[in-house]
Write the structure tokens for this entry.
Amino acid sequence: MTHKLKLAAGVLTALLIFAAFIYMPHGEQTSAESISETAAGYKILVLNYHKVDNMNISLSVLPKDFDWQMKYLHDHGYNTITPDELYKALTEGGPLPDNPVLITFDDGYRDNYKNAYPILKKYGFKATIFVVTGFVGRYPNYLTWEQAAELEENGISIESHTVTHRSLTDLTDDQLRRELAGARRDIRDHLGKESDFIAYPTGTYNLHIGQIVKDEGYKAAFTIKYGNVDLGSNIYAIEREPVFHTENTNKSFLERLQYLPVFAKFGWEKN
């Protein structure tokens, strides 16, 4: 078979597999073996949620759907990790469990404590919440510092999402440094820990911002750029897979998990 024919056959195979995933009936599960490829060669899945409630908007995953998704991960052999475990794997070759997944939440909504936390505990899962520190304990729909402390003590890492959630690309360098340093100070003062990780508000960043984030003492930063994390990832622009409420949220969730190993196999995951 010629090189062109081999390439065409590979492309066709990938498209057929991808189509099979898309048209998979709701609720049908695939083997853990196919999904476990995400862990091979440090290909790590990072999920990004915001709210877990019944608001029926794109950022709000229904509690019953979140429970279904966490059960799916549990039943298919996924093991949750912390940002520090991810960082050490990428920078030091640190060990990771089979099928590693980092579960993250942005903003620090109170429903993360009320609705998501009990489900995470149910399956013995770790997670990370990137909080807007100026909103914590100030607005009724956000976490209190007491709740944040309880979460931190029970396997839910609390990290930085800046002080005011302003898009970092709109700020001067001085404003940017105040947002970054202020959030670390707030978390240190209220939780007695250093926040070494940040998620960019609205996902906006550039290389200059990444350098300032590094200068302010953060070990790594998370975006909302699609894709699995691997040894080629920029630790100040770590990929995450957003999970939204859709017409069929759980089917969309499965597609996010399942198409990534297929495209990675054919070298299409990063450009």
Q: What stands out?
A: Residues 1-40, 261-271 have pLDDT under 50 and may be disordered. The chain has nine helices and ten strands. Residues 116 and 255 are 22 Å apart (CA to CA).
